[in-house]
Amino acid sequence: MQSQRPKILTVQFKSLGDTVVSIPALMAIRQHFPDCELHTLVPEASVPLIQHHPAVNRVWGVPRKAGLREYLPLLRALRAERFDRAIDLGCNDRSAILTFLSGAPERLGVSQDSGFFGRRFCFNQSVPAAPEDRHESLRLLHILSGWNISPPSKIEIKLFTDPIVTNPLTRDPSKRLVLCNTGATSAKKQWPVAHWVRFHQLAAARGYELAYTHGVSELEEQLIQQLKAQLPDARILPKFDLPHLLAAIKSADAMVSNDTGPMHFATGLGVKTVAIFGPSLHKRWYPVGAESRVLVAENCECIWGTFVCRRKNHCLAEITSETVLKNLESLLV
After folding, report:
1. 289: phi > 0 → left, psi -120 to 50 → alpha, else beta; which?
2. pTM beyond cutoff 0.90
3. 20 to 30 Å CA-CA from 83: which of 4, 162, 271, 301?
4. Do residues 272 and 246 lie in contact, with contact meaning Cβ atoms separated by under 8 Å?
5. Has residue 305 got a pLDDT over 80?
């Protein structure tokens, strides 16, 4: 029997960007069940993105590389909560299994042919997958139709930083600060180093203060080292933990970013963003929140099934430094 104050669990076991675009679904659940106790389970690294969001009562973090021994205490704790409902917002095998093992009597997910054989038995309510070309937040909101929750008229994504974390950046108050996120976990999503160098030269000449962030992968580290070799005076930021990175991004006037998690962080924090897209479906992953400009490499051939660009000249090389600067300045007028 459902409790007077329904207890609901959402499960989303994917990347940082996926956690951000799940926020409209969390907000829709809160609006539909205003008195519910809403818990969400995400990868441990994603916890700072939503632990201060007012729609959520509790965030559960799960290590990405956890074994059965690490999962057993978590599963016991989840089942002890006696959730009334659970929903799989991750749409992958692990999130489906965790939804099932939560013990909730009502379990909602997407019906799909892919995944392991037992996936179909993880849910007792299901909906068909939404079309691939819808924004990912709308695809997640579509899952909620299984609980008769209608999508909002406007998608809104807002991130909330930790109130006790201070901004780690110093800046020149006479200049507008632009953060440049060079990172992306696959080479085909990285704007070429030569373009970053040219953009830096153009933007610095226009009086902007530039600072560079990057991810933790070996590929991202290689790119930032190449950039540093060509721009010895460039300000390369240290690898902040996520709460401090969010505080740093929030302090900026704008961000220029490849299609990756910090792009979503920036707009969710109200920072104007120039987003550089190549092999991703931009209609599905464009940033939501603050005003943004989405630049797309035309006729990109490497959307599926390859880690590197298939062209002789990188797809993203079509997006020039001059184009990026023009769009940045149109945001900051």
Report:
1. left
2. yes
3. 162
4. no
5. no
CATH topology of domain 177-331: Rossmann fold (3.40.50)
Tell me the average pLDDT across 170-185.
92
pLDDT grade for 164, boundaries at 50, 70 and 90:
very high
Residue type (1 letter), 81:
E
| Three-class DSSP labels, the chain | CCCCCCEEEEECCCCHHHHHHCHHHHHHHHHHCCCCEEEEEEEHHHHHHHCCCCCCCEEEEECCCCCHHHHHHHHHHHHHCCCCEEEECCCCHHHHHHHHHCCCCEEEEEECCCCCHHHHHCCCEEEECCCCCCCHHHHHHHHHHHHCCCCCCCCCCCCCCCCCCCCCCCCCCCCCEEEEECCCCCHHHCCCHHHHHHHHHHHHHCCCEEEEECCCCHHHHHHHHHHHHHCCCCCECCCCCHHHHHHHHHCCCEEEEECCHHHHHHHHCCCEEEEEECCCCHHHHCCCCCCEEEEECCCCCCCCCCCCCCCCCCHHHHCCHHHHHHHHHHHCC
Strand order in the sheet with 37-43: 58-62, 37-43, 7-11, 85-88, 106-111, 125-128
Nearest to 169 by CA among 229, 227, 255, 232: 255
Query: Hey, what CATH topology would domain 7-147 get?
Result: Rossmann fold (3.40.50)
Burial (Cβ within 10 Å: 0-12, 13-18, ≥19) of residue 285: buried
Beta bridge partners of 197: none
What length does the chain have?
333
Q: Do domains 7-147 and 177-331 have the same CATH topology?
A: yes
Query: Residue 75 is encoded by which pair of tokens?
Result: 């599963």
**What pLDDT is recorded for position 1?**
44
* Lookup: tokens for 305: 């099934």
| Domain assignments of the chain as residue spans, ordered by start | 7-147, 177-331
